[in-house]
Amino acid sequence: MRRVLITDGMDKNGIAELKKIGYDVAEKFYGDEELGTALKDFDVVVVRSATKVREKHIKTALETGKLKLIIRGGVGIDNIDAKFAEQNGVSVMNTPGASAPSVAELALAHMFSLARFIADSKATMCDGKWEKKIYNGIEISGKTLGVIGMGRIGMELASRCKALGMNVLYYDVRQDLNVPGYKKTTMDEILAKSDFISLHIPISKGQPAIIGANEMSKMKKGAYIINCARGGVVDENALIAALDGGQIGGAGIDVYIEEPTKNIDLIKHARVSVTPHIGAQTAEAQERVGAEVIQIIRIFFEK
After folding, report:
1. Catalytic, out of 230, 236, 288, 292
2. pLDDT tens digits for 247-257?
3. Which of 105, 277, 288, 292 is catalytic?
4. Is 277 known to be catalytic?
5. Which of 8, 62, 116, 123 sits at a 20 to 30 Å CA gap from 15?
6. Count of domains in the chain?
7. Domain of 74?
């Protein structure tokens, strides 16, 4: 019987289905020092964001030769040393389409929160204040959205924002990518013309931030940054400085360089809307992730 380890949780219906079709499923989170040894006893490991499957863990797992498949229940695989795994006969796959609508909707929610002071309004009302005249917001209709990374999530966000009356520009490193209905342009034009910039790109370990102090200085004064992609894509310290200096009007952040984040200056900033990495945390997304994980496992082992 094939053994499947689920380290960061999965939809209960998906787990039940795996067991029903004959897989031995274990649900347990392992810390950095324990993970490699644990993987020696499993054919498949399914992770999300919390578990980092690094070269040392894979090396240890290879001692038994049992581990054949690592699945990331989500979009990116930057928390897995995929190249080393593949070079040593361990396949790495993900579920890129499952969470795209949920992440796109969270990015849009941050845009609305910033535009209309939704989180701030609740906080002050809970303090017994009625600061109606302070919260003079903006409409997002008629504004320009710049999408950096026009993959599944970027396209989901673009379609929603276009329906709301926004102009949509996008930049993508894939030269041959052409998405009808939206204007493909340069990074510099995205920075200069966008009222909202939303990032939907991966970042490699040790790679500098895509949006740092230099990029923020090129942005339209008072523009907003949305990051529901990966911690480190936006330079957190440069962002705080740009917010304090008035260059950036606000930021919606779901992902952080360190998680849980200890950057109190960022999360408590008056012009920052924050959530604790919940982009894929919807019932619908978790059901889709579970279904895709099952499909991957069945195709891999039952082909």
Report:
1. 230
2. 999 999 999 99
3. 277
4. yes
5. 62
6. 2
7. 3-96+283-302
